[in-house]
Amino acid sequence: MTADSALVRPLSRAYAAFTTRRMSWTGAALLRIGYGVTLIGILLANLGVRDQLWGPDGLYPWEEFSRSLGDQGYSFSLYALSSSAWWAEVLFFGLLAACVLLVLGWRTRFVLPVLWVLVWSWSERNPFLADGGDNLMRIVLIYLCLTDCAGRLSLDARRRSRRTPDRASARWRAGSILHNTAIVAIATQLCLVYINAGLYKVQGGRWQEGTALYYILRVADYTPFPELSRLVYEHGTLVLVLTYITTFFQAFFPLLLLRAFTRHLAFAMACLMHVGIGVLMGIPFFSMFLIATDLILLTDREYAWLTARWRMYVLERRRHKPPTRQLTPALLTEALSEPLPKPLSDAKGSPR
Fold first, then answer.
1. Burial of 203 (0-12, 13-18, 19+ CB in 10 A)
2. Is residue 348 over pLDDT 80?
3. Pick from 40, 63, 60: which is nearest to 51 by CA?
4. Which DSSP helix (H) or strand (E) runs through 198?
5. How far apart, in whole angstroms, are the C-alpha atoms of residue 342 and residue 245?
6. 133 within 8 A of 285, measured Cβ to Cβ
7. What's the confidence (pLDDT) of residue 268?
8. Lowest-pLDDT range, 56-60, 139-143, 346-350?
9. Hey, how many other C-beta atoms are within 10 angstroms of the C-beta on 149?
10. In this structure, how many other beta carbons lie within 10 angstroms of the beta carbon of residue 252?
11. Which residues contact 323 (CB under 8 A, 6 or more apart)?
């Protein structure tokens, strides 16, 4: 084998995979669902105060909003089309309906661009409510429009399952290239978020000293559970370790994605970090956006393995046996082929 063939063959295999196989197909579907659920949570949590937050006579009056939007010159918002309260209601509940359709995966190729316009307009109506999670979400939604995020776990996927796609066709290849390019763009955006956060941290004296987490958990506005926060910041060694782990994890996040083991470690650390942020600092929707974006870090094969392990666990629990057996090919086939158990019912027949 010549040196040229040793180089050409891996490149040709990578090109064939990039143009015929769609990466992180399940991860993109979970990202779609995660964003939709998070947006629904934000809208429902503020349903009773929507007039104060996004209404024409709310905390950010429509006249001031319209003047500020015109001064920017580069932005837009559908809220600027009318100062009437009914128009704000139409846009709010239209966004809520679009989020439901996104979660269900119904006509996603048409719903996603409409959702992005509605989300952008909604965010621009009161930019004082936005945080880093909202900014990342608005960027990733653009990339998500190019992915086949409805290829799994959606009503679109159920409809498309009636016909077998021709994976050798030019249409499939073009769609795969767009999908995979968007997935790489989302992963790159995620890397930029983490590495920028890490590099900003290493410049701060509190982070260099290992005491930053202590001061963060002492901020009254971001401590919804003071007793729980006290359990963390009263242990100096724990604060020191968590502060340095967070800094190094974010600063070296792109390097952790180069190997499978470190990528799994990065995914687990990112989820744990954002769960901690959501609970201890009281910003759950920010954490949910970030965790949803992190879901593209796992491959379809890894999601299939996790699904098989879960189904095997459920299968053995239903048989009242502890899950002590190893995952063999036979058990894997049995777990994937057997449907999940139906919910238990009480004496009246209603699910418990």
1. exposed
2. no
3. 60
4. helix 170-202
5. 42
6. yes
7. 96
8. 346-350
9. 32
10. 14
11. 312, 313, 316, 317
| Cα-Cα-Cα-Cα dihedral sign, residues 233, 237, 238, 241 | positive
Supply φ then ψ for residue 211, to 5 degrees.
-115, 5
Angle at 258 between CA 140 and CA 7, to 5 degrees: 110
The residue with tokens 């429009």 is 145
Structure confidence at residue 161 (pLDDT): 86
- Residue range 63-100, pLDDT digits in tens: 999 998 878 777 899 999 999 999 999 999 999 999 99
Q: What single string gives the DSSP state of each residue in 261-281?
A: HHHHHHHHHHHHHHHHHHHHS
Give CA 111 to chain center in angstroms: 18
User: pTM of the entire structure?
Assistant: 0.87
Q: How far apart are CA 4 and CA 204, in angstroms?
A: 49
Q: Are 79 and 88 in contact, with CB atoms under 8 Å apart?
A: yes
Q: Which amino acid is at 213?
A: L
Q: For residue 93, which amino acid is it?
A: F
Burial (CB count within 10 angstroms: exposed 0-12, middle 13-18, buried 19+), residue 264:
middle
* Chain segment 247-292, per-residue pLDDT in tens: 999 999 999 999 999 999 999 999 999 999 999 999 999 999 999 9
CA 198 to chain centre: 20
Residues 39/119, Cβ–Cβ less than 8 Å? yes
Both structure tokens of 87: 């128009």
Beta bridge partners of 345: 351
- With the CA atoms of 100, 101, 105 and 106 taken in that order, what torsion angle do they form, in degrees rounded to the nearest 10? 150
Residue 346, φ and ψ in degrees, nearest 5: -85, -170
How far from chain centre, in Å, is Cα 322?
Answer: 33
